[in-house]
Every structure is written in structure tokens, then in C-alpha cells.
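Progress report, Aim 2. The chain analyzed during this reporting quarter is listed below.
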Amino acid sequence: MNRNQNIFKVLLFPLMMSVAICAQAYTGEKLSKDAKISMEQARAIALKAHPGKITDEELELEKGGSGLRYSFDIRQGKVTQEVGVDAMTGTVLEDKPEGPHPD
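Predicted C-alpha cells for the chain:
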């Protein structure tokens, strides 16, 4: 392998991987056009209700509230909490430990 190929692997490959990771969308992103609350706002609301690290997030149609809900799995220590935020009002609809069969 020549020097230029090595430079490509060392410099460009990590850049390409970071772009691919950033381009991944959250589950339910297509529903966001119907939401009045943004994902960023919903994250802040969820973390205020239950501080920790968000390990999963999605926007889904689900019973309760307006029917359009952001759902977050928030890990703090060894416990994962499921926090649901209404995508129309920002109301916390759910804040409970994640069950044995997560979504």
C-alpha cells in the first residue's frame, strides 16, 4: 500500500464514519412535521423530569395526551427510566422505570 492510501485511511475514514453516524435519524423523525415541540425541547423536558444520559429516543404515535409522543430511555446508574413527553404540549406523560421488555 502506498503512502497516499495510508493517508486516506488514517484521515478520511474516521471523517466518513462520523458523518454517517451524524446522519442517522431518530425513530419517528417523519412525524416531526406534526409536532409543536422539537426533539431538542422534548429532550430538555425529559432530562428535567429525570436527569441522566439519554440512551434511546423516538417520536411515536401512542395513546394518551395528544397521541404524538417523544419517548426517551434515560439511564442513571444501573436504572433506565422511560420518560414520555407530549409532542404537542410538552407535558410529561410518563416517567417510570423501563420494564423487562423494552420497546
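Confidence is low (pLDDT under 50) at residues 18-24. The chain has two helices and four strands. These observations will guide the mutagenesis work planned for the next reporting period.
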